[in-house]
Design goal:
27% strand, binds NADP nicotinamide-adenine-dinucleotide phosphate, binds zinc ion, Rossmann fold, Quinone Oxidoreductase, Chain A, domain 1, 24% helix, 11 helices
Length: 350
């Protein structure tokens, strides 16, 4: 067994605190990674605080935007060697044989994918623990290659915020001539904005925070729509082909569905704790669609990482020591994140 240091949630309401545990020694197909950085996703907060129901499992080491260096590999590992850069995202396993797993869509595994934390591994008894920790051991099939061209700390958020926005923007064929609105300028939103711009679309940032307009433009947005301003909302009625909804808290869907053009699609990736009410009139008029999407498959995640290396795309990050994680959660909930917190995992080693 390999000793690991971490920060964990011990229950849904107390702050995260230090936690020591063990990782398994690498098996034949495993990669042992020394974690260097881990991004902080709003899904970490939802799960730590048990906001999605279903019963979170404690002690919980959150974190699914993991990057680091390979320390050891199992005998049958082909993709990695000691010293390589490697990443682990939201998924560490799946059944591998179902119609979705065999079609590079493991995130929709018929048996359910195995998450990086807050679940049991496929043996049914090992509690999976995430990246707010010094080490992780994962089957190479679910480990990603990270180009040394990328700034490592800023590449960490690509493992969740990156793929979660890249995948549905590709699926909806966003490109030149598409009018895209991105709702919520946080971790996912700022990556969605960068990708939609990189794909050649006309992009509008739709935000509740007037103070984020200048940043949105710096990040590449062509327009900025303050969603609390009814006049501006009226001006954009029926305007967008695709809206990427990354909002983490309750909001009124119909106000935003009304912004979609004929045949427009709202991609839903944000997962507030309460389900929204959808007014069917706003869906039926203009033949609009709601499209849900969960991260992306391993093959597409690698494609996204390679795209980022080629086009020099990374997240805008604020690096924190693990000791500031609880403050980072509070700030993220207030919408005060510019635009992803990333933990420097060396702060756990010292
Ligand atoms: P985040 O960094 O906190 O960003 C969320 C943004 O939503 C905020 O910055 C804010 O942007 C906006 N917002 C917050 N409260 C709002 C409110 N009451 N009304 C309207 N807008 C509000 O969160 P994130 O890490 O990007 O995650 C976003 C959501 O996606 C979370 O629910 C998370 O669980 C989910 N998620 C889903 C997947 C998936 O696979 N589908 C993957 C990762 C995360 P403005 O200030 O610009 O309004
Ligand atoms: Zn995430
Ligand atoms: Zn499967």
């Amino acid at each position: 067994m390999i000793p690991a240091k971490a920060y964990a949630a011990y229950d849904a309401s107390t702050p995260l605190a230090p936690f020591d545990f063990s990782r398994r020694s690498p098996g034949l197909q495993d990669v042992q990674i020394e974690i260097l950085y881990c991004g902080v996703c709003h899904s970490d907060v939802h799960q730590v605080r048990n906001e999605w129901g279903g019963g979170s499992i404690y002690p919980m080491v959150p974190g699914h935007e993991i990057v680091g260096k390979v320390l050891a590999v199992g005998e049958q590992v082909k993709k990695f060697k000691v010293g390589d850069l490697a990443g682990v995202g939201v998924m560490i396993d799946s059944c591998r044989v179902c119609k979705h797993c065999t079609n590079d869509l493991e995130q929709y595994c018929v048996e359910g994918m195995t998450g990086t934390y807050n679940t049991y591994e496929r043996d049914g008894k090992t509690l999976a623990q995430g990246g707010y920790s010094t080490q992780i051991v994962t089957d190479e099939k679910y480990v990603l290659k990270i180009s040394p061209k990328l700034d490592l700390k800023a590449a960490a958020p690509l493992l969740c915020a990156g793929i979660t926005t890249y995948s549905p923007l590709r699926y909806t064929k966003v490109g030149k001539g598409t009018k895209v609105g991105v709702m919520g300028l946080g971790g996912l939103g700022h990556m969605g904005l960068k990708f939609a711009v990189a794909f050649g679309a006309e992009v509008t940032m739709i935000s509740t925070s007037a103070s984020k307009e200048a940043d949105a433009k710096k990040l590449g947005a062509h327009h900025f729509l303050l969603s609390s301003d009814d006049e501006q909302m009226k001006k954009y009625a029926g305007y967008f082909d695709v809206i990427l909804n990354t909002v983490s808290a309750r909001h009124e869907y119909h106000r935003f569905l009304n912004l979609l053009n004929l045949n427009g699609t709202m991609i839903v990736v944000g997962l507030p704790s309460e389900d929204p009410q959808v007014k069917l009139f706003s869906l039926l008029s203009n033949r609009r669609s709601l499209l849900g999407s969960v991260i992306g498959g391993i093959k597409e995640t690698q494609e996204m990482l390679d795209f980022c290396a080629e086009h020099d795309i990374v997240a805008d990050v604020e690096v924190i020591p693990i000791q500031r994680i609880n403050e980072a959660y509070d700030r993220m909930i207030r919408g005060d994140v510019h635009y992803r917190f990333v933990i420097d995992i060396d702060s756990l080693r010292n």
